[in-house]
Design goal:
The complex is a heterodimer of chains A (about 600) and B (about 250).
Chain A: H1 8-18, H2 28-31, H3 35-53, H4 57-63, E1 66-67, E2 73-74, H5 79-88, H6 107-141, H7 144-156, E3 159-164, E4 180-183, E5 189-199, E6 208-215, E7 228-233, E8 235-237, E9 243-246, E10 249-254, E11 265-277, H8 284-320, H9 344-376, H10 380-415, H11 418-421, H12 428-435, H13 444-455, H14 462-478, H15 485-511, H16 514-548, H17 554-571, H18 574-583, H19 587-590
Parallel strand pairs in A: 3-6
Antiparallel strand pairs in A: 1-2, 4-5, 5-11, 6-7, 7-11, 8-9, 10-11
Helix pairs in contact in A: 1-3, 3-6, 6-7, 6-8, 6-9, 8-9, 8-10, 9-10, 9-16, 9-17, 10-12, 10-13, 10-14, 10-16, 13-16, 14-15, 15-16, 15-18, 16-17, 16-18
Chain B: E1 2-6, E2 9-11, E3 33-35, H1 37-51, E4 57-64, H2 68-78, E5 82-87, H3 94-108, E6 112-116, H4 127-135, E7 139-149, E8 152-159, E9 162-169, E10 172-176, H5 188-194, E11 199-203, H6 235-244
Parallel strand pairs in B: 1-4, 1-6, 4-5, 5-11, 6-10, 7-10
Antiparallel strand pairs in B: 2-3, 7-8, 8-9
Helix pairs in contact in B: 2-5, 3-4
Classes of the chains: A alpha+beta (about 600), B alpha/beta (about 250).
Chain lengths: ~600, ~250
């Protein structure tokens, strides 16, 4: 069976050496949080993930979610206890506002925790994940009364949250929503309609479930401008704050899925359920996008977590599986055969996985720090710049990290050979579990369109500039440094390639909007691989300096340099092909008639 | 009553230990370090005794370089009231540890010194016994159940033949076995609170203990690779095989 060991050493490297927290020292969340505290927090989070959540991962896959005739869902054995352990230890409130019972710690720390939870048990992680999104919406858009009522129990984990967007006739296109909200005389609304694919819609983990539901009021304008957002609790809160009377919302079915089997994916029926408007009418979609943006980053981290656990199990297997001999003659002559890790192609798969996982982890935490600056930094200009970077990176992290999750989970299975295809080996679960991350929270195709259609052109290209100027200032800071030319020169070239391709895409799509769609997914991958090159060059620079200074972490820094070299030699060149593909334009995609594609 | 819980920083039990290439020790660079699991069980038991109102204060102590403060902070986050760090750069051997602990006992006058029965790195299983002798107080080692009443402790011990229950007078030394309890998970807010709990640092020299070298480490090497197994056809053949190898 797979095991999980949290990458505490890499987290330490990233937080203490890579992130450069000194330049973010004005952050209130960092004033009372030292590097030692962060180590202690991550160590304990790792313990929870490794010893409580990971052992339940296969159990969850095997047992799935059961729904009884009264619409009550039961999660697999051990989930409720594990959730209680998780909440009692305070993990649910790690980054949440201290005013509502959270710990107020920096967002990037939340991303580390999220990676560990998802690597250990992605189905389990879905429940707190949804709650965090819902908390963020209420925090940002709810009334004071709503915040007082809902945030403390949700942050403590006693109540969980959901997001209800999808209906049978509308997924990506939310303008088609039909769920209705009739105003009642007491100022609340009565919600009626059917929502599908609602993650965490029903379960036995918590006392109450707070559904955030998109619906239309009777005279709302058509399309996305007529959607409002409502809080619809499963149990209506009493004045003392506890869950009270049962609301008229029920779970009518739990979907059977390819993976994530312990995450309850529910059909929810609202039959004149009591709902409370969040903010103003017809502002629902914009408000929900608060949640969508955070959820997209976290979805990227799901991909990263699953990639991380898949990669480490593949590496252990390759070191143990004895089969055949090295092409260069026996490397371990005292054994009946060499471990398969001697083979270049096996190493290729493992190194690809490692370069992607560690590169993505660096980019994720870097973006997490920018998110923290965007939300909590005292200087408005710093907040604005960080916000640009986060907005630009959100679709890239969502799409690339989840594509990468799928790629690495499949590579991990491939390294296992036939054993990987056997269910009981446990690694095919990673392939199934990660697959949805490429689809939900906006498919990766939609992310690519968001990048090209919105982010590329937004604010006169300021979003794009936030990336290029950060990379340029890195390049300037290390140019001429001993041993850095092998990274800086190709990085500079690939940044130029990205800049010229961005300009080309912009020209092509101003001529023909179909060009945006034709370029989008290749462009996003080109962007992501360039961003990872920046991350690897930066890690290489830090490691080179640390080795020159005689650091205590020799192995880690030597490894970083070696993997950086691998990335530049064997992965970054893919951008040449992507550049050519983007330049080829839409013509060949559109040539065939619809009925002949 | 105070309970003193000495804890040792060791390579985490989940880590596959590797010997350094020059044979001078085991690899600890980038390796996850934790409280010795038996010590953690001892600390958990001490906390439960305090939570039952049978002790007032739990003190964690550790001997080593600055790094051990990480484990002391974990101990404080678990619930210990304060911590003592005895600072030394050389890893002390069990007898020296026992002598250091005796000095801490003289300072703190605990009713119980609760240790882990052994550390998972060197597996010495000596410190508790030596300490009891030096202190000239009773010992209850390998504890799997502890009950306190009227200045006495009733302790079920895990011995080769099963469980042995003994009664000892306090103050006393105890050492925990694996099944004594299951340590709690540290709560996140308690990690932050632990920063504000007192942690005293004492240089080993200030305790007047000599860092005596009872024995010298010559070399470390990994255990030899296991040779291939052999399937035997019958019991008689098995017995023959064992006899041939001088095992019977």
């Amino acid at each position: 069976m797979p095991v999980y060991r949290a990458p505490l050493d890499d987290f330490r490297f990233l937080v203490e050496e890579f992130l450069d927290l000194d330049q973010a020292a004005d952050l209130p969340s960092l004033t009372d949080c030292s590097a030692d505290d962060i180590r202690a927090i991550l160590r304990e989070g790792a313990r929870l993930a490794e010893t409580v959540l990971q052992p339940l991962n296969a159990v969850g896959d095997e047992q799935g979610v059961r729904l009884d005739d009264d619409g009550r869902a039961t999660l697999p054995e051990g989930f409720a206890e594990a959730y209680q352990t998780y909440c009692e230890a305070g993990w649910n409130g790690l980054t949440a506002d201290v005013d509502y019972g959270g710990q107020g710690l920096p967002v990037f720390l939340g991303l580390c925790l999220s990676e560990m939870l998802n690597a250990a048990n992605a189905s389990f992680a879905a429940y707190p994940g949804l709650t965090h999104g819902a908390v963020e919406v209420i925090e940002r858009h709810g009334s004071d009364e709503q915040k007082q009522r809902y945030l403390p129990p949700m942050i403590a984990g006693r109540w969980t949250g959901t997001m209800n967007l999808t209906e049978p006739q509308c997924g990506t296109d939310l303008g088609l929503i039909r769920t209705r909200a009739e105003p009642a005389t007491d100022g609340s609304y009565r919600i009626s309609g059917t929502k599908i694919w609602i993650s965490a819609g029903e379960h036995d983990l918590a006392d109450n479930i707070v559904h955030l539901v998109l619906a239309r009021t009777p005279d709302a304008p058509a399309g996305t401008r007529g959607i409002s957002l409502f809080i619809v609790p499963k149990f209506l809160p009493k004045d003392d704050g506890n869950a009270g009377e049962r609301n008229r919302v029920r779970c009518a079915g739990v979907d059977r899925k390819m993976g994530m089997k312990a995450s309850a994916t529910c059909e929810m029926q609202y039959d004149n359920a009591v709902g409370f408007l969040v903010g103003e009418e017809n502002r629902g979609l914009a408000q929900m996008f608060t949640m969508m943006n955070a959820a997209r980053l976290v979805t990227g981290i799901q991909g990263l977590g699953l990639a991380s656990v898949a990669a480490q199990n593949a590496a252990s297997f390759a070191r143990e599986r004895l089969q055949g001999r090295s092409l260069a003659g026996p490397k371990y002559p005292d054994r009946p055969a060499d471990p398969i890790i001697v083979h270049p192609d096996v190493r290729y798969m493992l190194l690809k996985s490692r370069a992607l996982v560690e590169g993505a982890r660096a980019l994720g935490l870097y973006t997490g720090l920018q998110l923290e600056i965007e939300h909590r930094h005292p200087d408005p200009e710093r907040r604005r710049q960080a916000g640009h970077f986060v907005a630009l990176m959100t679709p890239i992290i969502k799409a690339f990290f989840t594509d990468m999750g799928s790629e690495v989970a499949n590579l991990g299975l491939q390294v296992h050979g036939g054993a990987g295809y056997i269910h009981d080996t446990g690694v095919e679960q990673f392939v199934r579990d990660v697959r949805i991350t490429q689809i939900y929270e906006g498919t990766n195709g939609v992310q690519a369109l968001d990048l090209v259609g919105r982010k590329l052109v937004a604010d006169n290209g300021d979003l794009l500039k936030s990336f290029f100027s950060a990379v340029q200032s890195f390049i300037d800071s290390v140019r001429g440094e001993e041993g850095m030319a092998e990274f800086v020169d190709p990085l500079e070239q690939s940044v130029k390639r990205l800049a010229s391709t961005s300009a080309l895409v912009y020209q092509q799509m101003s001529r023909d909007p179909l060009e945006a769609g034709a370029a989008s997914s290749d462009f996003l991958r080109l962007f992501a691989l360039t961003a990872l090159a920046w991350m690897w060059a930066r890690m290489a620079a830090i490691s080179q300096r640390a080795l020159d200074a005689g650091s205590d972490h020799q192995t880690l820094h030597q490894d970083k340099l070696a993997v950086a070299r691998f990335y530049f030699a064997r992965m970054l060149p893919e951008t040449l092909g992507l550049e050519a593909k983007v330049a080829a334009g839409a013509q060949t995609l559109m040539a065939l008639e619809d009925d002949r594609v | 009553m105070k309970i003193l819980v000495p804890i040792k920083r060791v390579v985490d039990y989940n880590v596959r230990v590797r010997v350094k290439s020059d044979g001078s020790g085991v690899e600890t660079e980038g390796v996850k370090m934790s409280i010795n699991p038996f010590d953690e069980i001892a600390l958990e038991e001490a906390l439960r005794i305090r939570e039952r109102g049978e002790a007032e204060e739990v003190i964690v102590a550790s001997i080593g370089g600055t790094d051990v403060q990480q484990q002391l902070r974990t101990g404080l986050a678990m619930g210990a009231d304060r911590a003592i760090h005895v600072e030394t750069e050389t890893a002390p051997q069990p007898l020296t540890v026992a002598r250091i602990l005796l000095k801490l006992i003289e300072r703190e006058s605990p009713g119980i010194v609760f240790l882990g029965k052994q550390a998972i790195d060197d597996d010495c299983n000596q410190t508790a016994q030596m300490l009891a002798a030096l202190w000239d107080r009773p010992q209850a080692t390998f504890a799997s159940r502890v009950e306190l009443a009227d200045g006495k402790a009733t302790v079920a011990r895990e011995v080769d033949a099963g469980l042995e229950t003994i009664e000892i007078e306090l103050p006393a030394v105890m050492s925990s076995d694996l099944r004594l309890n299951e340590p709690r998970f540290v709560k996140l807010p308690d990690i932050m609170k632990a920063k504000r709990k007192p942690l005293d640092v004492i240089a080993i020299a200030d305790l007047g203990v000599e860092q005596g070298a009872g024995f010298e480490m010559l070399a470390f090497e990994p255990p030899p690779k296991r040779g291939g197994g052999k399937v035997v056809g019958s019991v008689a053949e098995l017995v023959d095989e064992l006899k041939n190898r001088g095992l019977l």
